Protein: Amino acid ABC transporter ATP-binding protein (PAAT family)
Amino acid sequence: MTATTPVLDVRGVVKKFGDNYVLRRLDLAVHKDEVVVLLGASGSGKSTLLRTANLLERVDDGQIFLSGEDITDPRVKVDAVRARIGVVFQHFNLFPHLRVLDNVTLAARKVHGWDAARAEQRGMELLARIGLADKARDYPDRLSGGQQQRVAIVRAVATNPELLLLDEITSALDPVLVGEVLDLVGELKELGSTVLMATHEIGFARRVADRVVFLQHGVIVEQGPPAQVIDNPREKATQDFLARVLH
Structure:
């Protein structure tokens, strides 16, 4: 991998379910330390794009490269690829039978082979950073939705993944809790994480994204810096979407 090799490189990807094309020859590159935000209405292909990047869905055509490696090659070891990617979905997906610290350290211990002491030290450092060190021995049902989602994000970044995929991580939260979760994503940006995320939080995208990508019907209609795509969109489809969302 060279300095110019994208962390994620999506080339001509097609994904369909039956006769319904969800991604239509889509091209997208995400570079190291970049935060790319996907915007678009429900059904535009945002979640499917994230799921193909993590091999939860197999593409029907095209290729996806992770740090230069073709991960759509059928010979690729799927679990090895997923171990290099952190993923957080809109529903926290914490294991209810495991305490918070065990949730955070599970991948480090079981997938990456870290010893318990190293994993727990890293887990406690991260929990302390988000103000939840005192919840380490609690079960997830003792936490608020915002706290659970922050734990899910910390779990995803605990092993320093090459790429972090975030799929509508605030949509299941009470509006009061949205800010604390998005603040954490902002901190991850400052720490140099490479992030591809789908969100409806326009203000967050304007503040944190390096690039905003607007999708419609599985096609990238417009992309660029937030100041251009959000504040001065060139395409009518983008203008119409933002008018609905913002007003």
User: Anything to note?
Assistant: The longest helix spans residues 175-190. The chain has a mean pLDDT of 92. The longest strand covers residues 20-30.
